[in-house]
Amino acid sequence: MTALRGLWPEMQDTCTSLGLMLSIVLFMGLARVVTRQQLNGPMAHAFVLEFLATFQLCFCTHELQLLSEQEPLHPTWPLMLIYFFSLVHGLTLVGTSSNPCGVMMQMMLGGMSAETGAIRLLAQLIGALCSRYCMGALWSLGLTKYHVSERSFACRNPIQVDLPKAVIIEAVCSFIFHSALLHFQEVRTKLRIHLLSALITFLVYAGGSLTGAIFNPTLALSLHFKCFDEAFLQFFIVYWLSPSLG
Fold first, then answer.
1. What is the three-state SS of the chain?
2. Which ranges in 69-186 belong to alpha helices (H)?
3. In terms of C-beta distances under 8 Å and separation of at least 24 residues, what long-range contacts does 177-181 make, across chains too?
4. What are the GO MF terms of this UniProt record (predicted)?
5. Per-residue CA distances from 244 to 6, 13, 66, 167, 205 (Å)
6. How many CA atoms lie within 13 A of 53 on its CB side?
7. Contact, 159 vs 238, CB < 8 A?
């Protein structure tokens, strides 16, 4: 009983974080429904949907990163959360990419015009930055003991290897993920989402301790904005150039 009482504060903090992530997923889902019903014009429609998708992805990843740094009750707990929320994003963010590499790939394959691609890229950039500042404001409320506003203003460098290895890791992760996207297009939607979620979980497990295995430029900008300010060239090469080349 004493042990359970000692674990309860940790469980309460974890439940609060999970509740925040699920709440933002529901809120973004409601916003997408309103957008589809009320907003006219394909460009405005594409911009808002991509903004909402990127905001949701970055918001949840910020909170997942915070949860992964806690002492888990079981070593596979962070990976279970990554898999679960990858499923959630896959089910709720259909029709958006939330990743500049995905937009560029569609443009190169002729599936998207340059104008639409530029609108989506702009929406992703704004969504990533907005999510970062929203997380900073949310953490300042101190809803859990891990929510501290200073966290959002500090550079927490995830690169634990030298630059060439970091470039290779992010490029390979991006190549594998986007190759899977292309090859899984003919697979049934429900099965494809599970396969991609499992692949994302594996890539994070394999490369997370080395570079974070982000392979998404806008997500990297949102997670490590301060690091881009302090070491722009290094982070530009690893988290923007490498995934794009991959």
1. CHHHHHHHHHHHHHHHHHHHHHHHHHHHHHHHHHHHHHCCCHHHHHHHHHHHHHHHHHHHHHHHHHHHCCCCCCCCHHHHHHHHHHHHHHHHCCCCCCCHHHHHHHHHCCCCCHHHHHHHHHHHHHHHHHHHHHHHHHHCCCCCCCCCHHHHHCCCCCCCCCHHHHHHHHHHHHHHHHHHHHHCCCCCHHHHHHHHHHHHHHHHHHHCCCCCCCCCHHHHHHHCHHHHHHCHHHHHHHHHHHHHHC
2. 77-92, 100-108, 114-139, 163-183
3. 177/203, 177/215, 178/101, 178/102, 178/105, 178/246, 181/102, 181/105
4. channel activity
5. 46, 36, 26, 11, 21
6. 25
7. yes
Say how far apart CA 219 and CA 239 lie, in whole Å: 9
Write out pLDDT tens, residues 121-174: 999 999 999 998 888 888 888 777 777 766 666 778 888 888 889 899 999 999
- The per-residue pLDDT for range 68-102, each reduced to its tens digit, is 777 655 667 888 889 999 999 988 888 888 888 88
Question: For residue 23, what are its two tokens?
Answer: 């709440």
Token reading at 186: 């003919």
pLDDT 10s digits, 7-49:
455 677 778 888 889 999 999 989 888 888 887 778 888 899 9
Question: Could you tell me how many helices (H) and strands (E) the chain has, helices first?
Answer: 11, 0
> How far is residue 118's CA from residue 168's CA, in Å, rounded to a whole number?
27
Residue 77 φ then ψ, to 5°? -60, -50
C-alpha of 136 from chain center = 16
